[in-house]
Write a structure and sequence with these properties.
Helix content: 55-70%
Number of domains: 4
Radius of gyration: 27 Å
Shape: globular
CATH class of the largest domain: Alpha Beta
CATH topology of the largest domain: Alpha-Beta Plaits
Number of strands: 10
Strand order of the largest sheet: 2-1-3-4-5
Number of helices: 22
CATH superfamily of the largest domain: Reverse transcriptase/Diguanylate cyclase domain
Largest sheet: 5 strands, parallel
Distance between the termini: 87 Å
Structural class: alpha/beta
Strand content: 5-15%
């Protein structure tokens, strides 16, 4: 039996999980429930535990710190995160600690058993490894990946292998992916591992393979059991969630070219070619997704609409806060989609791409806002839509939500600038950094840096230096202090560096400035 630990500061939640889940059927036993991470760590130090199911927000030691300690101490324990929709962005930070899954609290009866089974599978794999069973090309998963790559590259795959690995039981969505790194340090293996982790967390209803092809080019294959009714727009939804995670946790950009879903293993090569064609159409900087449109090839009379251009224009108008212009642009899009004679399913996909892009931009504009429920309703509404009017109404509603969020956050963002400037004013004499300021304001340093520059046009480091140089200029003109003493007085410990920074912002060195206008 697998030993389960429950960690939540709410007794009714612990009791509910203990008594509403059929643990016997899962071949599991709840050995203890704890009120916080400290109690959990104290128990783990002396007792055997296989799986920890933990809340995020708790007193003493919270769930994120608990995950970190389990990871740092290399405890052989799998962790499942319990989260509310409002806490999901916070919970995602636990990804780097290799959590097995996230389970929404008010859906744990349906979702937790699946997460526990996933944890058990990982435990079983680790136990096999501990017995020094070598994983070779003959291992099922490795060889399946090998066969998928062979097929994509137009190499023959034997009927025996197709039958042996049951490759005709799936529908496939083939994706060509290019990774652009922010810096020179490239680690394809780490990126592939992280992408696989994201896929496992997001695409719970599908299997997937992340296959390196060459350099920074990889192929992502989504394998969908044929008895599951999963359409392309659902896959796109998942990929948009992954792009959000990539923006938050990885210093790279990912561009995805996505094929239509195919139902035959023999079509993988053609599908991969189409995915690469879709990838080649992406011209924007940053994370992006483009879907290959089969219908354009079938109807010579079809007008090709540049959805990417429409997406950029509508996003720009939305973030500018111009509702009337956005509504006109969306109406124009609807009219062009009708004239283009596209299939309604493709129209749904186009609207989904635009709405998802708007939401991604708003998330970046305001990371404190949680959009999980909004996005969930968005995808459900688009799936249920039957007319073009409904699609345009949905898109307009998303624009209105985004405009309201940005408008409501304007004053808060202006306050952010004020708070940063006040911190600099009160601490400029000390050795301060971006991290010091972000810690004092309880903000993520990357977010603080982006937001401050977006609002002021300068970096936080520039703001610190400009304030220090302004103070130094006053002292140079109005005191008898020596140059190095003035540098120390305004926060520069190194006289040479003080002089360098002074020249950068004033086009004169301190001595030249002091002697000017005399």
């Amino acid at each position: 039996m697998y030993k389960i630990m429950l960690v939540d500061d709410e007794r009714n939640i612990r009791n509910g999980i203990r008594h509403l889940i059929d643990w016997d059927e899962l071949d599991c036993e709840v050995v203890i429930d704890c009120r916080n991470g400290k109690e959990a760590l104290d128990y783990i130090a002396k007792n055997e535990v296989d799986v920890v199911v933990t809340d995020i927000k708790m007193p003493v030691i919270d769930g994120l710190e608990l995950c970190k300690k389990i990871n740092e101490n290399k405890y052989d324990i799998e962790v499942i995160i319990l989260t509310a929709y409002s806490d999901f962005t916070f919970a995602q930070k636990a990804i780097k600690y290799n959590v097995v899954d996230f389970v929404i609290k008010n859906e744990f009866i349906e979702e937790l058993p699946s997460a526990v089974n996933k944890a058990k599978a990982i435990i079983n794999d680790k136990r096999k490894e501990s017995k020094k069973i070598e994983l070779t090309i003959n291992d099922y998963n490795d060889y399946r990946q090998h066969l998928l790559m062979k097929s994509a590259l137009s190499q023959d795959v034997s009927i025996e292998d197709i039958e042996k690995y049951d490759l005709n039981k799936y529908n496939y969505c083939i994706n060509a992916c290019e990774i652009d790194y922010y810096d020179e340090k490239k680690d394809n293996n780490a990126s592939i591992k992280m992408l696989k982790n994201f896929l496992n967390i997001t695409m719970k209803d599908c299997d997937s393979e992340v296959i390196p092809i060459k350099d920074n080019h990889i192929m992502i294959v989504i394998l969908i059991d044929k008895d599951k009714d999963i359409a392309l727009n659902k896959v796109v939804q998942h990929f948009n969630e992954i792009l959000l995670m990539v923006e938050e946790f990885m210093r790279l950009d990912i561009k995805l070219g996505t094929s239509q879903i195919i139902n035959d293993f023999s079509e993988i090569s053609d599908s991969y070619e189409k995915a690469n064609e879709a990838l080649s159409r992406i011209t924007t900087k940053g994370n992006a997704l483009y879907i290959h449109d089969d219908s354009l090839l079938k109807d010579e009379k079809m007008i090709n609409i540049n959805i990417e251009e429409f997406t950029k224009e509508i996003c720009d108008i939305t973030l500018k806060g111009d509702r009337e212009e956005a509504v006109v642009k969306i109406k124009d899009l609807g009219d062009q989609l009708v004239k283009a004679n596209k299939s309604f399913e493709q129209c749904k996909m186009d609207i989904l791409i635009i709405c998802s892009s708007i939401m991604r931009n708003v998330v970046k504009y305001d990371i404190s806002q949680d959009f999980n429920q909004i996005e969930k309703k968005l995808y459900e509404s688009i799936n249920a839509a039957k007319t073009m009017f409904s699609l345009i109404t949905i898109c307009t509603r998303i624009v209105e939500i985004a405009i309201n969020v940005c408008r409501d956050k304007k004053d808060i963002r202006n306050q952010l600038v004020t708070n940063v400037d006040n911190y600099i004013k009160n601490n400029y004499k000390n050795n301060i950094s971006l991290q010091d300021i972000s810690n004092s304001l309880f903000l993520n340093s990357s977010y603080l840096s982006r937001a401050y520059k977006k609002l002021t046009g300068i970096t936080v480091t520039d703001a610190i230096n400009i304030y220090r140089i302004t103070k130094a200029k006053s002292l140079l003109k109005n005191s008898e202090l020596k140059i190095y003493e003035i540098g120390l007085e305004v926060g520069f410990r190194d006289p040479a560096y003080f002089s360098h920074v002074f020249v950068k912002y004033n086009n004169q060195n301190p001595t030249e400035y002091r002697n000017s206008d005399k």
